[in-house]
Amino acid sequence: MECVHKDDNEIKGGISIWESIMILLLIIGLQVIGGIFIAMLMGILNNASGIEIINNAYASAIGNMIAYIIIYKSLLKKNKFDIKLKCRFDIKITICCLFILIGYTLTYDNTISLIVQNLVSESSIDAVFTEMLQTPFAAFCSMVFIAPIFEELFMRGIILEQLSRRYKPIISITVSALLFAILHLNVIQGINAFLLGIILGLVYLKTRNLIITILLHGLNNLFCYIVSYFPELYKVDFSPIKLAVGVVLLVISLYIFKRFEISRETDKTGEEAL
């Protein structure tokens, strides 16, 4: 499959940093409003029926989906963004990106993660996760599918893509990663999201392949999901061996990834294929 863009002249100069912030605020605002609305609606239905038709975890997932869809539709109506990408699947690049993710995870979990957990305590976030994990299916759908697909659609597919049309890569990647961190609305997740956002940003700008970033995001969340239910599978205590393996794997994978040549062709319609 090929990754097809419309003529870049249809999108004049991308968006500014301020416009990207407004998109983020719109996402957060509608998520909150959607969550409250769905929760109230489900509360009314539950009270009327006398049984719990749907709990807060499912209501939250539905609210987030509705918010993302509304924003997506509103942005498309303005004809400002083109994110309908059909991406060529390159197995070598994908495997390399998976090793980057593994290397990053091992490195982060044995350095910054331990420091953050010792310095920052967020009981409210712990309570949210505890409640969410009481509904495994809702947690799985939200963490492994809804969040990766929609967050990548907006954070990389729209915000990073458009920022990269106006700013240098280092600025566009840093800003999009920072907004990605803010989207999580807590320090512990935010720091990890910022660093992961840097990696996902590098991958996206190199490949212009949203499918790969969705896959990486989904696998990262799947790993967190599995560890949440089976903590014995992955200990969070400091391990010099894991750290050494992570650093080596991350450095080598990034070096190999940097050397990949991404082919760019022009199809019969005159559109650019990446």
Fold and architecture overview:
The protein has helices at residues 17-49, 56-77, 91-109, 112-119, 123-132, 136-163, 169-183, 187-207, 210-229, 240-259, and strands spanning 265-266, 272-273. It is mostly helical. It has a two-stranded antiparallel ribbon with strand order 1-2. The chain starts with 16 loop residues before the first helix and ends with a strand. Mean pLDDT is 82; it is low at 1-11 and 265-274. InterPro entries: CAAX_protease, Rce1/LyrA-like_dom. It is an enzyme of class 3 (hydrolase).
Report a brief summary of the structure.
This protein is mostly helical. The chain has helices at residues 17-49, 56-77, 91-109, 112-119, 123-132, 136-163, 169-183, 187-207, 210-229, 240-259; strands spanning 265-266, 272-273.
How much β-strand is present in the residues? under 5%
Described by strand count, sense and barrel closure, the largest sheet is: 2 strands, antiparallel
User: Mean of residue pLDDT?
Assistant: 82
Distance between the termini: 10 Å
Number of helices: 10
General form: globular
**What ranges have pLDDT less than 50 throughout 5 or more consecutive residues?**
1-11, 265-274
* Tally of domains: 1
Helix content: over 70%
Please give the order of strands in the largest beta sheet.
Answer: 1-2
Please provide the count of β strands. Answer: 2
What structural class do you assign from the helix and strand content? mainly alpha
Order of helices and strands: HHHHHHHHHHEE
Radius of gyration: 20 Å
Organism: Candidatus Clostridium helianthi
Protein name: CPBP family intramembrane glutamic endopeptidase
Domain CAAX prenyl protease 2/Lysostaphin resistance protein A-like: 136-223
EC number: 3.4.-.-
